[in-house]
């Protein structure tokens, strides 16, 4: 990329909007994932009895199993949400920036 195109891109307000929006969104998603993951780890560390509570009367599966599966499902879901937004909103804005600077 030539220096001229690079300078025009960095001067474009849409570039700064894209950069700011993507960074904030990335940090929010990261924070959500950290809260869920470390919340589960903290639950394991500090309340083992709760996680060991059996589900149903037979007592084969404990409540920790569905919560752990929920953490995995949450990870997949927020990844899908991020990819969907990146492929629609962020890519559209990126294409507009490229079109304007060339």
Please tell me about this protein's structure.
The protein is mostly helical. It has one domain (about 5-100). Helix content is about 85%, strand content about 0%. The longest helix is centred in the last third of the chain and has 38 residues, at about 65-100. It starts with a helix and ends with a helix. The model has no long low-confidence stretch (mean pLDDT about 90).
Going by helix content, strand content and strand pairing, the class is mainly alpha
The largest sheet, given as strand count, sense and whether it forms a barrel, is:
none
Helix content: over 70%
Number of helices, counting only DSSP H or I runs of 4 residues or more: 4
Task: Give a short summary of the structure.
With 102 residues, this protein is mostly helical. Helices cover 83% and strands 0% of the residues.
Key features?
4 helices; mainly alpha; elongated
Topology (elements, then pairings):
Blueprint: H1 3-11, H2 13-46, H3 48-51, H4 64-101
Helix pairs in contact: 1-4, 2-4
